[in-house]
């Protein structure tokens, strides 16, 4: 099992949500995140305004999925979150030891 973490631009959240639902993803977690990438100290646009990059607000999307589906989901996020401009976001993937559904006690793939 894999945890996909994607940091995306806030204004792309709706596009990403729709694309993930269309791809059959049935569980996501969304939270606010502040950070910077390789433009720190340079400028980046946020809501049409140019900022010197220190900590820029973005959206974190987390998806727990199977090993088999991970690559296609990453691809869906890249295509739906991208504008071709700096600050479009970053995605990383980690391996999960354990997932459990609280209601049933199911664990592993059955709990996703
Ligand atoms: N190395 C990193 N470690 C942890 N978080 C990161 C890292 N790089 C970027 N992030 C997070 O991802 C967000 C988006 O990064 P961003 O799209 O600016 O990446 P980038 O590598 O600078 O690419 P680009 O040149 O396209 O801007 C950042 O605001 C930050 O929250
Ligand atoms: Mg950047």
From TrEMBL:
GO terms for biological process: regulation of nitrogen utilization. It comes from the Bacteria. The modification O-UMP-tyrosine is found at residue 51. The keyword Cell membrane does not apply. The keyword Endoplasmic reticulum does not apply. SUPFAM superfamilies: GlnB-like. Pfam families: P-II (PF00543). Keywords: Phosphoprotein. One of its GO terms (molecular function) is enzyme regulator activity. One of its GO terms (cellular component) is cytosol. Belongs to the P(II) protein family. This is Nitrogen regulatory protein P-II. It comes from Bifidobacterium magnum. The lineage of its organism: Bacteria, Bacillati, Actinomycetota, Actinomycetes, Bifidobacteriales.
